[in-house]
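Model the whole thing, not chain by chain.
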Amino acid sequence: MNELMRRLLVLPEQRSTVAQDIDTLHYFVISITMLGAVAVALVALYFIIRYRRGGGHSENRPPDERSGHALSGIPYWAEFVVIAGLLSLFVTWWVIGYRQYVRLQDAPEDSMEVYVIGKQWMWQFAYPDNTRSNGVLYVPSNQPVKLIMTSRDVIHSFYVPAFRIKQDVLPGRFTAVWFEVTEPGTYDIYCTEYCGAGHSTMRGRVIALAPDDYMRRGEDDDAEQLGYRGSGYEVPAGFQGPGSYEEPATIGQFTRRPVTLVEMGERAAARHGCLRCHTVDGAPHIGPTWARAFGSIITLESGQKIVVDEQYITESIMDPLAKIHGGFPPVMPSYQGLMSAVDIGAIVHYMKSLKDLPLDIPASPLPLDERGLKVQPPVIPGKLPNPIPEPELPAADRTGDRINGRMMNERTDAQPEETR
Amino acid sequence: MSTTLWLSPRDETGAPDAVLPPDYLQVEKTVRSWLLTVDHKRIAILFLIGITLSLILGGLFALLLRIELLTPERTIMSAMGYNRSFTHHGIIMVWMFMIPSIPGVFGNFFLPIMLGAKDVAFPRLNLASFYVYLLGSAVTLWALIGGGVDTGWTFYAPYSVDSPTRVVPVGIGIFILGISSILTGINFIVTTHTMRARGITWRKLPLFVWSIYATSIIIIVATPVLGLSLLLIAADHMFRIGIFDPAVGGDPVLFQHIFWFYSHPAVYIMILPTMAVMSEVVCTFSHNRPASYWAIALSSLGIAFVGFLTWGHHMFVAGISTFSAGVFGILSMFVAIFSAIKVFTWTATLYKGRITFTTPMLYFFWFLFLFVFGGMTGVAVATSSLDVHWHDTYFVVAHFHFIMVGGTLTGFLAALHYWFPKMFGRMYSERMGLVASVMVFLGFFFTFMPQFLLGNAGMPRRYYSYPEHYQWLNVLSTGGASILTLGLTLTLGYLIVALVRGPRAGRNPWESRGYEWLSPTRPPKHNFVTQPSFERGPYDYHLPE
């Protein structure tokens, strides 16, 4: 039945955990819609034929002198019942639909997180292990994946028909969407918010790999070896296969290993001067501490309670005075246009890594050097104890900020433009 | 329905032709008398000409789009050409055709007559409204010809702030068109309040007037907000003030809120006048009272009111809060309830009527089907989880075209056929009317039914190129569009023939009890020779005439 209706309505295959439930509601709503339209039309047609002039039916009808309409005998409660029935039908749709919508909005706690950047006209994906890909999003199947998305230019929208998910991707703030793929395969990504001349070419693919294959994807350099060529997916020209590492960043002059997103966030926070006012060990300073901040509920100056999440952090970076944490002075400058999307994403991730900091760490003020940067690196459970040397400021990070008046430009992403 | 009705013996013209004053077309014939007229009927004719030209122009852009979409890649134009074409199609159809169509033409012509008035309350303002419309159209078209604009008719920021195309002149053109709507809206409201003839109480107001009145309220409340949003876009575009552009501190979602605060009610500016026409058509041709006068009259006001509280359903995936999405979802369903009340009442009006089946009645029948289907898909897209899949796909395109074309265009055609005898004093060929009407319906159905399926399959709107598996539905849709074009061309053809050579129409060819049919055909300059008595109501088919 599901398959029949799906094919009749030309719906894509259902490859996320939410897809079939949403489609079931779809069948219910569309069937009633079609029945309703046809029923009203048939009733009208019947009346038009039966009560046509000269049809012998109505010519001699004595008109109702009181109101003049033949229906005036119908009691009001009957009309009320019809309207109330219809309203309850609509409200039923709304209740089911809204519950599903809430489910679509709330990512499970254990989701794997991928950062997504939309730009005219391609998608870029950054994974927690600091691999990146363009145009193709690699995810494990049977595991929830949360995409934390932003745009570098205009509004885009991330849409995967087979998953029944869609979320606008906005410049200057982060939005999130999540899904759990039920079967390995390749699925189309479309941009669904009009974004200019190349809008219809802003497509991509999700490649869902079985969890084991996903673990191995860094080792195998070719999608063909994983057997996905046969499933209709062709490796786009210029694409270097899954796990195509960027040139690993250097730390100091000695180490040469991939930098984790947490480390990138730490470096970005230091570079942009965040740590002059925000501590990472729980001590309040000029601004609130980042330790245990993410996911906590704070009270704003206005008395309103708010959860510190990606949206709040991003908003506070862009427009710090909009929602001030109670008890702190309104002194933070806006970083609108000064910080790249990658840096913001990395900082958010860094803050997340601090959210489970044990409470027994002494809440002492951080010693600061003359530039206002912290001297001691934070102690983060599960991380290497080696202090990471103060990073040199790469020249590229300073210049790439504003091109054509647009914010969030990076220079480091000179990957092949894979736009299909 | 035979075509002999226009010579019906029931046509008692009050006075023989010889003593009638010259009608509004004959009273003066100079070009100057047309350009400086303050007669609401002549202004309506001027609007009719402007609006028909806009419809043709907007339709040509639609055809170009459909031809381009025949193949997955380039067919006849570049991506930029395509993006401009759908923007121009939308702008012309929304602001130059649909919004002024029924109010500007039939509202202007018949609202004063239905109130027993000589003219609208402010005749010179009425003429100004036409010239402002002309100016707005000229500015818009000048901008479209001189490069055009590629933002889509929705002007979403920050794309519209950055677009290298002529956003500012087009915005100014639409701003001016908005002023024209406001002038018309004010005129209708004041006329309805102050110009009613003795005997026409609020309880005896024709349903057409009720709906146009509700439309006018929406126009004067919502249109200034449109003007505001377009001016802010223009300011952002020219001076980079940073209202909507996040690169300089703006909020792009704010634009969507402001824009849809106007543009959702604008949907009701387009559909309420159609409901106005259909309420008249169904009563006249079933020769029956409306099953419930107050249900139709008050549901128009209900739609006008609730319509202002639903704009957020355009933004379920734009990043608004989950709670807002829920509230906007449920509020949207109330609009459907008011519309459903209307649909039930129209259908019940047919019950035990004495129905004559004519071209306007056929349009009413198509409208009933298309509006119920289009309206119910509106409830479907207000269901938040379903909207996530459908948002910005062809499903939404199909849904609003069911309302806009299946509603507004159908209503416009029904009104044109229904009032043609009164406006021009001649009859068109009933047979041609029915044939063209069937073509319009079939063409429409096959244009937009495949688009629902395209949306289900996930094809995003505003796509110049698309994956090949969407092609068969696109070809089907283009096929439907060609039938629709043929039907509309045929309509234009036989109506022009009827203007010149159609048989003379009598005062009341449809045997309606509507007040406008009490005036002579064609109405003289001041609508009535002697003020008729309005003792009975406009739908008193149960009383002897």
